[in-house]
Specification:
This protein is α/β, with parallel strands linked by helices. It has 2 domains: 132 residues, P-loop containing nucleotide triphosphate hydrolases (Rossmann fold, 3-Layer(aba) Sandwich), CATH 3.40.50.300; 247 residues, Winged helix-like DNA-binding domain superfamily/Winged helix DNA-binding domain (Arc Repressor Mutant, subunit A). Helices cover 45% and strands 17% of the residues. The protein has 16 helices and 13 strands. The strands form 3 sheets. A 6-stranded mixed sheet has the order 7-9-10-11-12-13, with helices on both faces. The longest helix has 23 residues. The two termini are 22 Å apart.
Length: 393
């Protein structure tokens, strides 16, 4: 049974476009499942799924003589002179594939849907070779609303300011699922697994596959152990400003190497950094970016972050799709944790009080923000402007 994702309507709508539909993101975020559903929903009668993890398929699609590829398609009973849907899974395994796709796209009425686990490869190679011929869709782990859907829990998604209406019965109904999301994240397999032990094993396996396959596809890192050490150091710094000098000292690598690793981790969907907003460079901190992980389960497994940091990381992932994120901080240390589209200010506190809202509202005046809220995890006190984290779906 296909379980819905928030991005699926946009993917399905793009089926009608001749452009190549590109799904990219970390492995095991559900790209293959989405592709198979797109095949089922496509009105094109001729369709074929091609798994490039199979060596015979990789050899064929690496063939410099494109006519041999066309001959292989014809031998499977397909007619390339008629509408045809081809789904190619894990295209990062075939380095010259963009050139093949460009030729076939320009010559035949083939609709391509392709997936890959390497954002760096996809966005750089495809930009050069397929300009104007593709649309890239980023596939992330499940957000909290999707997690509830996968578990068969009916819950309404709310936006500002509706999300600030606290309903005690809704909190009691959903708090267990929200605690699970904060601790184990949103990889579909992890969400659908009941055993805590199995969840942890799956997360460990996902991270291992990411380092040993995705990263090695992208780069020539000689010692993956150093990369893993860096990931652990980053996990305990979730929600804090990046201090590259400190990381360099702790891990014993050169600054350029650490900077290259950070770029690689961000471009391959493990971490994300957000900038600071500044109205006056002389008064605010303008260079340091704050760090977050794109899945709470990985951050919780490899690091020893406190519950507050894990909660803030979960809120980051819940806000990720709501607009451009930044933070705001004065040199005095006063800050707004998240600013959305330079319009909405969000302060994150596990146990929030009215004073937290007054603080964010005061700082928001420097940026002329139109709305301010405090997002909490434990609603010991509720007040106007308070949002329980589980309402952000």
């Amino acid at each position: 049974m296909f379980l819905p994702r928030a991005i699926y309507p946009a993917l399905r709508a793009h089926l009608a476009r001749p452009q190549i539909t590109v799904l990219t993101g970390m492995r095991r975020t559900g790209k293959t499942t989405l592709c198979r559903q797109l095949m089922a929903d496509s009105p094109i009668e001729q369709k074929l799924y091609i798994d490039l993890e199979r060596i015979d398929n990789r050899i064929l699609w690496s063939e410099p003589n494109y006519e041999l590829i066309l001959q292989a398609l014809t031998q499977q009973g397909l007619h390339v002179d008629q509408p045809l849907l081809l789904v190619l899974d894990e295209i990062q395994l075939v380095p010259n594939l963009p050139s093949v796709l460009k030729y076939l796209y320009d010559t035949y009425a083939i609709k391509f849907v392709v997936t890959g686990s390497s954002a760096y490869y996809m966005k750089n190679q495809f930009t050069e070779s397929l300009a104007g011929r593709k649309k890239v869709f980023d596939i992330y782990p499940l957000n909290f609303g999707e997690l509830l859907q996968f578990k068969g829990i009916v819950a309404t998604s709310l936006d500002w300011p509706e999300a600030s209406r606290f309903v005690r019965s809704e909190y009691e109904r959903l708090k267990g699922y929200y605690d699970e999301y904060i601790e184990y994240g949103g990889f579909p397999e992890v969400v659908l697994t009941e055993s805590v032990t199995d969840k942890k094993d799956l997360i460990s396996d996902i991270l291992s596959s990411y380092i040993n396959f995705d990263i090695r596809t992208l780069s020539d890192i000689r010692d993956p152990a150093n990369l893993y050490k860096l990931i652990k150091l980053l996990a305990v710094r979730t929600g804090t400003k990046l201090d590259i000098s400190k990381l360099t000292s702790l891990i014993g690598l050169s600054r350029p190497t650490v900077e290259n690793y950070l770029t690689l981790l961000e471009q391959s969907y493990l971490i994300r950094t957000i900038p600071v907003l500044a109205t006056s460079p002389d008064r605010e901190i303008v260079k340091a970016r704050k760090l977050y992980f794109l899945d709470n389960g990985i951050a919780a497994m490899v690091g020893d972050a406190g519950s507050g940091a894990k909660f803030e990381n979960a809120i980051f992932n819940q806000l990720l799709h709501r607009g451009e994120l930044a933070y705001y901080q004065l040199k005095t240390g006063r800050e707004i944790d998240f600013v959305i589209d330079q319009e909405i200010g969000i302060e994150v506190k596990e146990t929030a009080a009215e004073g937290d809202l007054r603080n964010v509202h005061s700082l928001a005046q420097n940026l002329a923000l139109r709305q301010t809220y405090v997002v909490g995890r434990y609603p010991l006190r509720t007040f106007e402007g308070y949002v329980w984290g589980g309402m952000l779906r």
